[in-house]
Amino acid sequence: MTTMTFVEPSGQRVDVDVPDGWNLMQAAVANGVDGIVGECGGSCACATCHCYVDDPRVAELAPPGATELAMLDNVAAPRRDSSRLACQIKASPELAGLVLVLPETQE
Prior knowledge:
- This protein is an alpha+beta fold.
- The chain has helices at 24-30, 66-72; strands at 2-7, 13-18, 50-53, 83-85, 99-101.
């Protein structure tokens, strides 16, 4: 298990213990984190798990693939350099303590 922190649109911080290998959208939905919709169930087809990765740590993630980049063009909230889809980030011990800030809207 790896602990990640989600910052809900309200500013509430939620620490979630995520099984290694799970994607962060799954973890957020399973733990009732407000601000993640995940309409497509994690297949990178809806962009409703848009999040902002804590800037100092964004470089630790594998770069987004072509499908994720295309989906990021469809996010409802402003896209930033740190924008990612939570369904494309897999939990691992190396990412312990990662902070994901959730935008005001997903739709």
